[in-house]
Amino acid sequence: MATMKRKKAPAKTSRYTELRHMLEDRRRELMSDVQGRIRDVRSEGDREVLDQGESSEVDIQEDIEFALIQMKSETLNKINEALGRLEAGTYGNCFGCGEEIAEPRLRALPFAVRCKDCEEARETAELRARETAQRRGSSALFLDMSS
Ligand SMILES: [Zn+2]
Fold first, then answer.
1. Residue 86 clears pLDDT 80, i.e. is over it
2. C-alpha 111 to ligand 1 mean position (Å)
3. What's the gap in Å between 90 CA and the centre of ligand 1?
4. Which DSSP letter does residue 92 get?
5. Cα–Cα 20 to 30 A to 83, which of 8, 54, 64, 103?
6. What's the 61 CA to ligand 1 centre distance in angstroms?
7. What is the pLDDT of residues 92-129, one digit of tens each?
8. CA-CA distance, 35 to 58, in Å (whole number)?
9. How far is the CA of 117 from the centre of ligand 1 (A)?
10. How far is the CA of 100 from the centre of ligand 1 (A)?
11. H/E segment holding residue 42
């Protein structure tokens, strides 16, 4: 009997399964959306010859469609990356504290790299830094005026 020896497969926890389903569902949705749009653009291109004005309007619409398709394709890439990280066992862990990011948060923000606490701490720190910089800026102005 051949032993099932895969390259260090991560423990298939229920969290892993849930996240995998979540990412795969999104990937499937995006893929059918992108494919549908590509089909639409193609079939529009087959329409009878339009006059100049009409065809430039179609061009603009096609540009918008292509931009959308591109955006969605990029999201697809991100999902594929996330699935790769999930396989490697690094997806869904916080960059800040290393703890697992809560699943509801990942469902809402599949590409979140920090847990809620770390994200909030980071935002607060950024806000403080901005405020401090502003205060320094105004006190420097004050010093300039008093000298
Ligand atoms: Zn964290």
1. yes
2. 14
3. 14
4. T
5. 64
6. 43
7. 999 999 999 999 999 999 999 999 999 999 999 999 99
8. 19
9. 6
10. 8
11. helix 14-45
Could you tell me the distance, in angstroms and rounded to a whole number, from the CA of residue 81 to the centre of ligand 1? 21
Rounded distance from Cα 105 to ligand 1 centre (Å): 12
| 50-64: average pLDDT | 79
pLDDT at residue 45, as a whole number:
60
Rounded Cα distance between 63 and 57, Å, is 10
The residue type of 61 is Q
- 98-118: string of b/e by CB count within 10 Å (b at 16+)? eeebeeebbeeebebebbeeb
Residue indicated by tokens 């399964």:
17
Q: If residue 51 lies in a helix (H) or strand (E), which one and from where to where? A: none
Q: How far does the centroid of ligand 1 lie from the alpha carbon of residue 54, in Å?
A: 53
State residue 10's pLDDT score. Answer: 52
In angstroms, how far is CA 66 from the centroid of its own chain?
19
Q: What is the percentage of the chain residues whose pLDDT exceeds 90?
A: 59
Q: Could you give the CA distance from residue 31 to residue 90 in angstroms, rounded to a whole number?
A: 24
